Amino acid sequence: MEHFTIATVAEESPDFRRVLWTGQHLQLVIMTIPPGSEIGEEVHPDHDQILTFVSGVGEATVAGEKKKIEQGDLVVVPAGTRHNFVNVGPNPLVLYTVYGPPEHPPGTRHRTKAEADSAEHADR
């Protein structure tokens, strides 16, 4: 059995992105977005995504609609939907996200957004 105290695990991770678990149909990923930074506008053509925010404050943009996000909020991003999440607060924006199907190779760990962007460009 895989078991996580997810809020604690996410809060303790300094990594921009870290894959915690990958199954056949789903993937669990934790992220830490530094103040003033963002995930970056993107579209996952074949992946649904659910993001749950553990701490910090940010702004979600999904399909052109903007909304403030904070601890306890959950945002659903259907496959094919343009989206971005920006940290607008003074502290890290910490979240966990579930992709269906998996988006990243199992065990992926990107310490910074620059490292994540570099890895994505290398995969193209």
TrEMBL record:
Alphabetical list of SUPFAM superfamilies matching this protein: RmlC-like cupins
Superkingdom of the source species: Bacteria
Pfam families, alphabetized: Cupin_2
Domain Cupin type-2: 30-99
Chain intervals with Basic and acidic residues compositional bias: 113-124
Gene3D superfamilies per record: Jelly Rolls
Region (Disordered): 99-124
InterPro entries listed in its UniProt record: Cupin_2, Flavonoid_dioxygenase-like, RmlC-like_jellyroll, RmlC_Cupin_sf
Record-linked PANTHER family: LIGAND BINDING DOMAIN PROTEIN, PUTATIVE (AFU_ORTHOLOGUE AFUA_6G14370)-RELATED, QUERCETIN 2,3-DIOXYGENASE-RELATED
Name by which UniProt lists this protein: Cupin type-2 domain-containing protein
The organism of origin for this protein: Planosporangium flavigriseum
